[in-house]
Design a protein that fits this description.
- It catalyses: CDP-N,N-dimethylethanolamine + a 1,2-diacyl-sn-glycerol = a 1,2-diacyl-sn-glycero-3-phospho-N,N-dimethylethanolamine + CMP + H(+).
- GO terms for molecular function: diacylglycerol cholinephosphotransferase activity.
- The chain is mainly alpha-helical.
- The chain is about 65% helix and about 5% strand.
- It has a two-stranded parallel sheet.
- Helix 4 runs antiparallel to helix 5.
- The radius of gyration is 22 Å and the shape is globular.
């Protein structure tokens, strides 16, 4: 038995990717570079191989964090973190990820492999990169294990969820004049390079002082936040704008008869799954705690963020699958259950005035967090494997080779799309 129902598999053949990117940086700088860069890749290289290569680079960056900054996984965290030269490699790696993530679609059109599988694979890798990027960027800005890093995680995941939610309702992947995949990534690359030159303590400098306007009204009356926390405020403002524009795009699609919802407010209700899933994680993080077992201040913080990211990838993966198969919006995800039970157990003292059943000490809390990470990893791996198996078998394509099946069921080489 497959993961995707048979009647939904039939909708895969009707799927066609539609995207809009209004970024001036993309139009005048990056896209000409991407167009030339993709021509360096042979036609026998499958687009999903390019996508996976980009994610592997970011994952390698993450492994270097663990290797050169082992205290990040212990109870004792150093502010300075890894050697400064490492941040330059993170910047180069993230730029390469952005480049490969941009040209995989071009390679798909060159090889005639464009389709729903590429859409699923691309978004799945992007979802994983979101959390890894939050961890690395938070370390580069000296945020460390703090609520500011949690805030960064929420803002980044929310932007990704919002984009996927909008694409589901409009049928178009819309990137505005300022978007996370373009300008947002370039800003993080700049953060890595800045930290490489000056170290993470540069982000402790006050923003108005750096700009030389701390004694000028009205700035002298506005809190003079450090640069890293100012960046979080900027991200929150950008998120608010993105929410507004995404909802306008959904409304316009509905009025034009192209949207999947005829109700004005029903799409807004489908933002609640992200709110609920985030509330579960916050409830677990903010439990009363005991001694030194508070998750944010302990070595459990990193596996907690990774488990959260994997659950989010599972959530948006099902949303993208619903988009390419024209299925109902997946408002509920069973993967939340374990985190919800863990959050409830940790908050027994606050809710009922009794001790937790399982998380009675720091060691048990650590076990629960790591077990949650393992469950989340296995669940997402299962989802990815089953979906790839269903789509490749039904459409007669391969995931990592440029091949298709002929009428007799034999593999053959795909022909380039000469119209791309």
């Amino acid at each position: 038995m497959g993961y995707i129902p048979r009647h939904l598999l039939e909708n895969l053949k009707a799927y066609k990717y539609r995207g809009t990117d209004k970024s001036l940086v993309t139009r005048y700088i990056l896209n000409p570079f991407w167009t030339r860069f993709v021509e360096l890749w042979p036609l026998w290289v499958a687009p999903n191989v390019i996508t996976l290569t980009g994610l592997s680079i970011v994952f390698f960056n993450f492994l270097t964090l663990l290797y050169y900054d082992p205290l990040y996984l212990t109870e004792k965290e150093e502010f300075e973190g890894p050697p400064h030269w490492l941040y330059f490699t993170w910047g180069i790696g993230l730029f390469l990820y952005q480049t490969l993530d941009a040209i995989d679609g071009k390679q798909a059109r060159r090889t005639g492999m464009a389709g729903p599988l590429g859409e699923m694979f691309d978004h799945g890798c992007d979802a994983l990169n979101t959390t890894l990027g939050c961890v690395l960027a938070g370390r580069a800005m000296g945020l460390g294990r703090s609520w500011w890093t949690v805030t960064s995680q929420i803002a980044t995941l929310c932007n990704f969820y919002l984009t996927t939610w909008e694409e589901y309702h409009t049928g178009v992947l819309f990137l505005g004049y300022f978007s996370g995949p373009v300008e947002g990534i370039l800003m993080i690359v700049a953060i890595y390079l800045t930290t490489g030159f000056y170290g993470p303590r540069v982000w402790e400098n006050k923003i108005w002082t750096v700009l030389g306007i701390d004694n000028i009204s009205p700035f002298s009356k506005i809190p003079n936040l450090p640069l890293n926390k100012s960046f979080m405020v900027f991200a929150a403002a950008g998120l608010s704008i993105n929410i507004f524009h995404s909802y306008l795009n959904v409304l316009q699609a509905r009025k034009a008869g192209k949207g999947k919802s005829h109700s004005r407010y029903h799409p807004l209700v489908l933002l609640l799954p992200f709110v609920v899933s985030t509330a579960i994680q916050i409830a677990w993080l903010s439990h009363p705690g005991f001694n030194d077992s508070y998750i944010i201040q302990s070595a459990s913080f990193l596996p907690f963020l990774l488990a959260w990211g994997l659950q989010f990838a599972h959530q948006v993966g099902r949303m993208i699958l619903a988009h390419v198969t024209s299925a109902p919006f997946p408002a509920w995800d069973w993967i939340w259950i374990w985190s919800a039970l863990a959050a409830l157990d940790a908050n027994f003292p606050r809710l009922f005035g009794i001790s937790p059943i399982i998380q009675t000490n720091a060691r048990n809390t650590s076990y629960v967090v790591w077990f949650t990470f393992a469950i989340s990893l296995l669940a997402y791996a299962r989802f990815v494997t089953l979906v790839i198996h269903d789509i490749t078998n039904y459409l007669g394509i391969a995931c990592f080779t440029v091949r298709k099946k002929d009428e007799n069921g034999h593999w053959k080489n795909a022909q380039p799309d000469k119209t791309s």
